[in-house]
Each structure stands twice: as structure tokens, then as C-alpha cells.
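TA notes, week 10

Several of you asked for a full example with nothing omitted. So below is the full record: C-alpha cells for the whole chain, then the designed sequence directly under it. When grading your own attempts, check the secondary structure regions first.
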């Protein structure tokens, strides 16, 4: 008898994806660099990869003020865009990033 109930544990990789670890470390460094902007923000950033020539990001953030959110989109968003584009060359990047507690994190896949 073939027991398929264990098939997911056999297929699951016990090791973290090195590319995802690299990306998260870069996101941590970016959040540290711009901690004056990131602290106090909460929400998600959703990326759309349907157009291979351009990258679209939608920001759904709340924070202390509209100015803080605009600053994040202008200053941090530029570097996030560059980071996601560079990651896109090697791997399929995450579609969603979380911003909370002074961190920018990869959504669980």
C-alpha cells in the first residue's frame, strides 16, 4: 500500500533557500539604513511581474504621517526596486513584502 500522507515531508526542503536568505539580509540592511523612515510603518508591498520589461509595486502602508509614507516610497522604494530587480535575474522574487516593527520581510511562500 502506498501512503501519500508523508509525501509533503519528503518533498519539503529542510534547508533554507540561500537566495532568499541573501535577499532577507539585504532587506534587513536596507531597513537599518533607513530606520528613521521604516520605524513606525506597517503594511505590505505587492509586486507585479507580469511585464518582463518593468516592475510595478503597490504600497499599502500606514504610519505616523502621509509624509513618512511618501518618504518611504520615494527613498526606500527606489532601493527596494533595485534589489528586487537584481534578485529577479537569478530567482523568482517574492510578490509580497511586509513592513512592520522596523523591518522589511519576505512573505512566507
Amino acid at each position: 500500500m502506498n501512503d501519500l500522507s508523508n509525501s509533503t515531508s519528503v518533498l519539503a526542503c529542510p534547508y533554507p533557500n540561500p537566495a532568499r536568505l541573501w535577499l532577507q539580509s539585504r532587506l534587513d540592511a536596507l531597513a537599518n539604513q533607513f530606520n528613521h523612515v521604516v520605524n513606525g510603518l506597517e503594511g505590505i508591498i505587492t509586486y507585479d511581474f507580469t511585464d518582463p520589461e518593468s516592475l510595478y509595486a503597490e504600497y499599502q502602508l500606514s504610519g505616523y504621517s502621509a509624509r513618512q509614507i511618501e518618504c518611504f516610497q520615494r527613498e526606500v522604494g527606489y532601493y527596494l526596486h533595485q534589489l528586487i530587480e537584481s534578485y529577479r535575474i537569478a530567482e523568482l522574487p517574492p510578490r509580497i513584502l511586509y513592513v512592520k516593527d522596523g523591518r522589511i520581510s519576505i512573505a512566507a511562500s
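The beta strands are 42-48, 56-62, 96-100, 103-106. Use that as a sanity check on your answer.
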